[in-house]
Amino acid sequence: MKLRFTYWLLAVCLYAGAVQAQQVTPTADQIKALTPAWKGDRTPDGRPKVPDALLQRLKNISIEEAWGILRNKGYQNQFEGDWMLLRPDQVMTGRVVTAQYMPLRPDWDQLVKDKGKAEGRIGGTNSWPIDVLSNGDVYVADSYGKVVDGTLIGDNLGNSIYAKSKNGVIFYGSVRDMEGLEEIAGFTAWVKGYDPSYIQQMMLAGINVPIRIGRATVLPGDVVLAKKGGVIFIPAHLLEEVVLNAEFIALRDQFGHQRLKEGKYTPGEIDSQWTDAIKKDFLQWLDAQGDKLPMSRQDLDKFMKNRTW
Questions:
Q1: In 3D, which of 82, 64, 62 has the Cα closest to residue 72?
Q2: How many alpha carbons lie under 13 Å from residue 278 in its C-beta half-sphere?
Q3: Would you call 139 helix, strand, or coil by DSSP?
Q4: Which residues are annotated as a binding site?
Q5: What sign for the dihedral angle of Cα 275, 280, 285, 289?
Q6: How many Å apart are CA 82 and CA 34, to the nearest integer?
Q7: Distances in Å between the alpha carbon of 43 and those of 97, 130, 162?
Q8: Which is it for the CA torsion 262, 265, 271, 275, positive or negative?
Q9: What is the DSSP letter of 173?
Q10: pLDDT tens-digit profile of 89-113?
Q11: Would you list which residues are annotated within the binding site for substrate?
């Protein structure tokens, strides 16, 4: 009971301090406290910094595979579909930088602008999340689905986003100047709409704070996998497990499909619990793949020790 009260008191103090300071973004320590399950490297602002190699491997994972693994881990609210895509065939992965927008309330908006000015932030508030981006980040914003007068970026800000992150954006809202954005080689976007209007009657409420993207809850430093079927947000501490699980399932399926085509096993044998003979055959098949494996053989062997096939 005493320990729970201590945690409660700490949370209240952190919240009160944030309100009093009217922070635009939490401190690095606050972001670390928000993502305690991650034990690896972090960015200077405190977000989990997953390895680039895992981000690259994640591109080959299907939304369904990632969703199924997360769901089994208890994370059932990490997917959002029904997007307008700038480039439907492009896949995007990266470390999430969040931004929360709200309908304009002048007194709060002024507090945020004053705090931003004191912190040395320049330009319109919709450019501030872009200023914190670095290579491998993905700018993810909740602008509450506003399309008309809710366009967060046009081609100028789109160029800045790509220059800093080498990635695109995911907006629960809209953009303008789609033709200009299409001309930015490599840039892509998942948005809820397009409109030629400018942003009006909106305010930035926070950067790198927890946000809602449709059906999904998103934290700063989450990893996003965005494909034409939708986007899924993966907690950083689960990324390696998601990737390894999905890669193993893909290898298992590849082996099964090959052996079925060869007529070596029946569908019933492949689709049920494997016999020791099939397991041995699979291990020999893995040996023959050599450097075609998506992971190191050491990582694969370690993973298989804890898996019940």
A1: 64
A2: 20
A3: strand
A4: 154-157, 176-177
A5: positive
A6: 29
A7: 11, 16, 19
A8: negative
A9: S
A10: 999 999 999 999 999 999 999 999 9
A11: 154-157, 176
Asked if residues 170 and 139 have their Cβ atoms less than 8 Å apart, the reply is yes
Cα–Cα distance, 225 to 13 (Å, whole number): 35
Alpha-carbon distance of 183 to 158, in angstroms, equals 10
Helix (H, G, I), strand (E, B) or coil at 237: helix
Question: What single string gives the DSSP state of each residue in 114-138?
Answer: HHHHHTT--S-GGGHHHHT--TTEE
pLDDT by residue (tens digit) across 180-198?
A: 999 999 999 999 999 999 9
Q: How many whole angstroms separate alpha carbon 68 and alpha carbon 242?
A: 9
Q: How many CB atoms lie within 10 A of CB 36?
A: 8
Annotation: binding site for Mg(2+): 177
| Eight-state DSSP code of residue 191 | E
* Phi-psi label, residue 264: left if phi above 0, alpha if psi -120 to 50, beta otherwise: alpha
Tokens of residue 274, six digits:
């494997």
Round to whole Å and give the CA distance between 112 and 122. 12
Domains for the chain: give ranges and CATH numbers: 24-234 (3.50.30.40), 240-305 (no CATH)
Tokens encoding 278:
């099939």
The CA distance from 38 to 50, in Å, is 9
Task: State the Cα angle at 161 between 159 and 162, rounded to 5°.
Answer: 65
Residue written as token pair 């709060």: 108
β-pairing verdict for 92-103 and 223-227: antiparallel
Give the strand pairing for 189-191 and 202-207: unpaired
For residue 230, pLDDT over 50 is answered with yes
- Tokens of residue 202, six digits: 């909106």
Residue 70's identity, in one-letter code, is L
